[in-house]
Design a protein that fits this description.
The longest helix is centred in the C-terminal third of the chain and has 14 residues. The chain is an alpha/beta fold. It has an 8-stranded mixed β-sheet with strand order 1-7-8-6-5-2-3-4.
Length: 253
């Protein structure tokens, strides 16, 4: 049974957007996953580490998917609702969640960790990552690549200068090297994203706030209605995400 524009808008506008998991979108949107399986890679590497740090952990949902943690495990998060959610999820498994500001430095000693991980960091503090890594330690991350869901940004006329600042593989490798890290693996994939109703778009843009900065239903109602009619007539709204796998190592002394 088809639902009206107003029903879809009201439901999506009222949905909670704390944490960093997207189960609300089940059956309403799909995103192709990268072939490398980041969570599987992360879990395997954490299981072999002695001290781990997960940066910008969100609500801790991705980190919680690891099968085992090293003897020392910490995670950082700057947004208080997410930090609280991550604490509830990860503390029972012995992970210390540290609330941090949105700027460096990290509140950890030099050479404290042999593995630093991050999935979809908003900003990558390369020099701080290098500083807290032990010699021989690694940074394993999945970054948001350039132009991610740019089709949505274009549809709502988001100013290019304010879109999520992401770099291509070569730029990220250069930044890692400038911080003293050696890239072991670096690759990017472009992945298909489909939104099956306008409510899924509203929820996504409320949660991933850098795609269309300042997005509100009220300010974009006309375009949202047009999108609803377009999806009803032609099928899902299609966009594309880019994801970059980075595995960088700090040289041994």
């Amino acid at each position: 049974m088809r639902r009206s524009f107003d029903e879809l808008v009201a439901e999506a506008a009222a949905a909670p957007v704390d944490g960093w998991e997207f189960s609300w979108l089940d059956g309403r949107a799909t995103e192709q996953r990268p072939s490398w399986g980041y969570q599987r890679l992360m879990s395997r590497r954490l299981g072999a580490a002695s001290a781990g740090l997960d940066l910008q952990t969100g609500g801790g949902e991705v980190l919680a998917g690891a099968e085992a943690f090293p003897p020392v495990m910490a995670a950082t998060e700057s947004w208080p609702p997410n930090a609280a959610r991550a604490t509830r999820l990860l503390h029972p498994r012995g992970v210390v969640v540290v609330s941090t500001p949105d700027h460096p430095p990290l509140p950890f000693a030099d050479e404290a960790f042999d593995l630093v991980t991050s999935r979809h960091p908003i900003v990558v503090w390369w020099s701080e990552i290098a500083r807290v890594l032990k010699p021989g330690g690694s940074y394993l991350a999945q970054h948001i690549g350039p132009g991610t869901v740019g089709e949505l940004a274009d549809y709502f006329d988001a100013p290019p200068a304010t879109r999520h600042a992401a770099s291509d593989v070569a730029s990220q490798v250069a930044e890692a090297q400038a911080a003293g890290l050696q890239a072991v693996d670096a690759r990017m994939e472009r992945l298909r994203v489909e939104f099956f109703d306008v409510g899924s778009v509203i929820y996504f843009l409320r949660k991933v706030i850098w795609i269309v900065p300042g997005f509100t239903v009220e300010a974009h109602r006309d375009r949202l209605r047009q999108m609803h009619e377009q999806i009803e007539a032609d099928g899902p709204f299609v966009a594309h995400a880019t994801r970059v796998l980075i595995d960088a190592k700090k040289p041994e002394r």
